[in-house]
Design goal:
Shape: elongated
Number of domains: 3
Number of strands: 6
CATH architecture of the largest domain: Orthogonal Bundle
Distance between the termini: 83 Å
CATH topology of the largest domain: hpI Integrase, Chain A
Strand order of the largest sheet: 1-2-3
CATH superfamily of the largest domain: Intergrase catalytic core
Strand content: 5-15%
Order of helices and strands: EEEHHHHHHHHHHEEEHHHHHH
Amino acid sequence: MTNVNSSSQPAPSKPPKPYPEFPLFPHASGRWAKKIRGRFVYFGKWDDHEAALQRYLDQKDALHAGVTPADTTERLTVFFLCGRFLTTKKNLLETGELSARSFDDYTATCKRLIKSFGKLRAVADLRPGDFEKLRAKMASGWGPVRLGNEMNRVRIVFNYAFKSGLIARPMLFGEGFRRPSKKTLRTHRQAQGPKMFTPDEVKRMLVEAGQPLRTMILLGLNAGYGNSDLGTLPLTALDLKSGWLSYSRPKTGISRRCPLWPETIRALKDWIAVRPTPKNPEHAGLLFVTAAGGSWAKATRDNPITKETRKLLDKLGINGHRNFYCLRHTFRTIADAGKDQPAADYIMGHAPESDDMASVYRELIEDDRLRAVTDHVRAWLWSAKKSRIRGSGKAGA
């Protein structure tokens, strides 16, 4: 009679090799193994022969040479990789080679990878199926543009691991981790409608907006300035006497110069007269300061300019998937009709195409050409009956 209380159990049967050429054998310990230089080396559990094979391929050169692989004693985890990656990016941030916005985006991406894959998950064990599941999860709540941007950042993190020698081979993402197609992006954009405002909508915004949002709106349309531009814009960039604005674009470092409309100059003077005193000395030179004395330059997902514009658009009933940055889209769209692309590029701070030899030799663009572009946009805005835009002088946000 069998003793049912016995602790002895039959040993599990060893699995066969997945295919005859598979370089590892099933060890009795439940792991795939190989005898190298007279000793057994183990590469992973029976139930995941692909991960075991990948680890063997990553380590075989070192093992056969008698060298202990770096991750034999401490495997590269997702958490460790993200830490190394963000440390490198923080160094670039501190030297001014990376924007705060980009660093915030990379930080959010790393947090998402740790949450999705697990803090202690070995990078070598990640399979294409893991990335396919990550994509599906992100796609369930995001549009194709945001999805594509995030997928690109994920690839940057794991490409960093290979380029830094943390993994022996490039990460295999698989076909299920493809970025949205150009057709998908075009269809999505068409469904959202144009990313620009009409003259009437801009005028209504100017009438209703308080300071400093009204001045920001004018700079957005007059000079093609976006959220980051305005949040970091120094007072020294302004020459209100001559009516010019000169400031390198924070995102690219490209120089730009723009003539200011009379309406913009008047709004700037109105704002400067009521500008709050900055609380932090490092914000003392900024043109735009919040009512609390803080900076308007915040992370993309918590940007006060975006929030204030959203409140204004909702109040005015201006619908569509539009935000403050659409003023930059509007400027570019109307400026192109002025038929001087190099001048419009210079005002926008756009980098010239690498194969555009004319831009390599072009040292400057005459003020008259720049003024012609902004005059064209101004004529578009004020072609209809003018609206009263001076409004309240109180500080917002």
